[in-house]
Amino acid sequence: MIQINERSMTPIYEQIINQVKELIVKGGLREGDKIPSVRELSGMLLINPNTVAKSYQELERQGVIATARGKGAFVCKPAASPGMERERGEQLREEMKRLIIEARHLGMTKAGFKTWVTDEVERNWGEQDADG
Amino acid sequence: MIQINERSMTPIYEQIINQVKELIVKGGLREGDKIPSVRELSGMLLINPNTVAKSYQELERQGVIATARGKGAFVCKPAASPGMERERGEQLREEMKRLIIEARHLGMTKAGFKTWVTDEVERNWGEQDADG
DNA sequence: TGTGTGTACTATACCGAATGATACAGTATT
DNA sequence: AATACTGTATCATTCGGTATAGTACACACA
């Protein structure tokens, strides 16, 4: 379900965040589904509970999951606050800009880049939405 | 020319790397151009020379610039080694995957994402290339 | 012989990531 | 009431990367 790469440059708590989001997007987790408890997941991944807790707190801050003492953590319906969307939208622009510059330095052409992006979208977007 | 954001989460030496690459892509720096010396740039940015040196070493490792003792650092002609291209290509795929998943969680539609990417490409790609 | 260049090395300070352990607070079940 | 589960909070500690500081070396050029 969730796998951790010890040698990755991205910290463990971010790997958890990213993989939970990926599972949701790709249909492995649906709205209302219960995700493993802090202690469960820390036991499965052989990492510290505090690290998992940090991931869940950030996921809740982003409106991806909802947590409740004694009950557990559950997948939310997508409902990001406007402020949060602006914040993460700006970050997304910066990352895309960096990615484009990197692609140029790898020798990609503009047309090649566009088709490459299209391929990656088809591979990672998950289920179709209204205008898919 | 190059500006450092002290409060940014990205380390200074990476900011330098990214901005040098951006300058090259956007035409501010061309093949053969001399870039500021380690001590010059560290003086301009009010940072430690070792930090600039680290940036230049990574830029040289990636084949973006060439350095020579006593002469300085100069912009290279793009000639990345095949191994380097594979390494960075894989990294690019991972980043794009993460970016796509993030876009979904921000409520973008597939079509909306594609047009957004197109806009960013037009804004950041720089001069036209063969099939632009 | 100078001056400017990249490079190398050591030492230090700071911060985030991750661990370990303990305790607290709310929920559900028995 | 008791118990077991949940998320949360706090403290201490270790570890690695970032950045600074200072010094020294090797090469190029005038």
TrEMBL record, chains A, B:
Keywords: DNA-binding, Transcription, Transcription regulation. It comes from the Bacteria. Residues 10-78 form the HTH gntR-type domain. It comes from Cohnella luojiensis. InterPro entries: Tscrpt_reg_HTH_GntR, WH-like_DNA-bd_sf, WH_DNA-bd_sf. GO terms for molecular function: DNA binding; DNA-binding transcription factor activity. Pfam families: GntR. SMART domains: HTH_GNTR (SM00345). This is GntR family transcriptional regulator.
